[in-house]
Design a protein that fits this description.
The protein has about 40 residues and is an all-alpha fold. The chain has one domain (about 1-40). It has 1 helix and no strands. It has one helix at about 15-25. The chain is elongated.
């Protein structure tokens, strides 16, 4: 069963659009960790 849903973001409220984005991007990253030394490496 393959189907495509088209969503026009201009026709949705911000909260509805936010819900669609959360459902589309999973799993969501919870953190980005990085280390840099004094030389920028």
């Amino acid at each position: 069963m393959n189907s495509t849903t088209t969503i026009d973001p201009h026709q949705l409220s911000v909260s509805a659009l936010h819900g669609h984005l959360l459902a589309a991007v999973a799993p969501r990253p919870i953190a980005l960790a990085s280390t840099i030394d004094k030389q920028g490496n």
